[in-house]
Design goal:
The structure holds 2 protein chains of 2 kinds. Chain A is α+β, with helices and mostly antiparallel strands. Chain A contains 2 helices and 2 strands. Chain A is rod-shaped and about 70 Å long. Chain B is 42% helix and 16% strand. Chain B has 14 helices and 8 strands. Chain B has helices spanning 16-28, 46-49, 60-64, 70-73, 99-112, 126-133, 146-159, 164-167, 183-187, 194-201, 213-221, 225-228, 233-245, 261-270; strands at 3-8, 34-38, 75-76, 83-86, 115-119, 137-142, 173-181, 205-210. Chain B has an 8-stranded mixed beta sheet with strand order 3-4-2-5-1-6-7-8, sandwiched between helices. In chain B, strand 3 and strand 4 (83-86) form a beta hairpin. In chain B, helix 1 crosses helix 13 (233-245). The longest helix of chain B is centred in the middle third of the chain and has 14 residues, at 99-112. The chains are: A alpha+beta, B alpha/beta. At the A-B interface, helix 1 of A face helix 7 and helix 10 of B.
């Protein structure tokens, strides 16, 4: 490097490195997760469907990662007609 | 030996086809038999980089579908007689590749050649997953640049889950090949350096190919760079990488910024 380099701003590569490390740590954990979530979704749907008629896309399963605990958020939309049929009030 | 290698990357334009041609030629030049297989159905280019684009009669899909026999589709290289090419189809769509068909072709190639090098298409779709499906070894071609490194990481995840070896609980041997490396820019901190890439991807390094005009010149004339310009730094780096694939212990040459202060002062004026 020429001595002029000493006065030059630090390059952008360290920023690239840091951004990648953060992003990939996140992506690596979520790719393994998506398999688990779709499995959970299918099994939950199967259990619920034994009693109430629900659609596949009315079941949403979300995993929120926290520092100490993560929360599994299951959201099932039940149509009125299905509720009436199952005799739930 | 009989190794099936996939050259893959996720991202397009990083140098998979150049690498397949250069490594194939370098391995074949040692006298071992090599076939390079183009998996980029619909966008084939390995034939062009190898200079065999006018000799394609049958292709991978014809063989997969049983329209042609494997020996009819293989194109023997005119410069090295231990090197062959199995081209991709330019017209069919990629759904024409079936897993069973690819399995059959790879199995047959294994019996005929010491090395089977599969040039993967970009992306993570069917073509890419089939190209890696039966591999023993993967070469992940990565440019020192954020989007390429991210895509390589994704591909590594697929190699660990979607390949036949992974499903059997074994591991595909994985190597990083850094291409288009510009030592001057890395030294100035403008480009991720070798250690950055290896730290992030945590895989062993197969080689570092410097950014060079010889690579472009070689593809212009349809000759693998290891044959077209054997003395160039890129050719040397590919030959070393090929030797490492064969299990030889070759010291890694990190391309250096050879321009000194005087070159910088006078080089610009001359240009």
């Amino acid at each position: 490097m020429s001595f002029l380099g000493l006065f030059r701003r630090r390059g952008s590569a360290p920023v690239a490195r840091e951004r990648l490390q953060i992003l990939l740590a996140h992506e690596r954990s979520s790719h393994g997760q998506s398999d688990l979530l779709s499995k959970l979704r299918d099994e939950i749907l199967a259990v619920v469907a034994q009693h109430i008629a629900v659609d596949h896309d009315q079941v949403r399963v979300k995993l929120e990662r926290g520092d100490k605990v993560s929360t599994l958020d299951i959201d099932i939309e039940v149509p009125h007609s299905a509720v009436a049929l199952a005799g739930i009030r | 030996m009989n190794k099936v290698i996939v050259v893959t990357s996720g991202k397009g334009g990083v140098g998979k086809t150049t690498t397949t041609a250069a490594l194939g030629a370098a391995l074949a030049a040692t006298g071992q038999s090599v076939v390079v297989v183009d998996f980029d159905v619909g966008l084939r280019n390995l034939d062009l980089v190898m200079g065999a684009e006018r000799r394609v009669v049958y292709d991978l899909i014809n063989v997969v579908q049983g329209v042609a026999k494997l020996p009819q589709a293989l194109i023997r290289d005119k410069r090295i007689d231990t090197l062959s090419l199995l081209p991709a189809s330019q017209t069919r769509d990629k759904d024409a590749l079936t897993e069973d068909g690819v399995a059959r072709v790879i199995k047959e190639l294994r019996t005929k050649f010491d090395w089977v090098i599969c040039d993967s298409p970009a992306g993570i779709e069917r073509g890419a997953t089939l190209a890696m499906r039966f591999a023993d070894t993967a070469i992940i071609v990565t440019n020192p640049e954020v989007s390429s490194v991210r895509d390589s990481d994704r591909i590594i995840g697929l190699l660990d889950s979607k390949t036949e070896l992974a499903e059997k609980g074994e591991r595909v041997e994985k190597h990083i090949l850094i291409t288009r490396y510009d030592p001057a820019r890395a030294a100035r901190g403008e480009m991720l350096n070798i250690n950055d890439v290896l730290d992030i991807l945590s895989l062993p390094l197969l080689g570092i190919i410097p950014e060079s005009e010889e690579v472009l010149r070689a593809s212009n004339v349809g000759t693998p760079v290891t044959l077209n310009d054997p003395k160039s730094a890129a050719a040397q780096a590919y030959r070393d990488a090929a030797a490492r694939l064969r299990g030889q212990d070759v010291p890694m040459i990190v391309p250096a910024d050879r321009k000194g202060l005087l070159d910088k002062l006078f080089g610009r004026r001359a240009a």
